[in-house]
Amino acid sequence: MPDVNRGNRPLSPHLTIYRPQMTSITSIFVRITGNALLVAGLLIVWWFVAAATSETAFDRADAVITSWFGDLVMLLSTWALWYHLFGGLRHLIWDTGRGLEIEAAENMGMMMIIASLAMTIFTVIVL
Question: H or E stretch including 49?
């Protein structure tokens, strides 16, 4: 027998009533930073291949990497690397069964953000 109320049921959770949480946002950004690191890695590989290919190819690749856009990509990649690392450490802690309470998970998410920004600044200034 067909369900006559099928079209009247609400979606759950619906986008208009769902409030993003710290854990979901930080988890999504871990995935985004992982993909962004792949793109940055390809840019660096292109630079190395261009260096091994010809002077013209290297000049073109080097112009991109040393431009303001390349500097921005490398800065954001540094942040993405630290953020992704701290996200992986958070998951390792969760795998042991610790920090799964809502308040602890939200605090770890905030610590991920602060630590990744601090380590990015440290890396850019000191290293």
Answer: helix 22-53
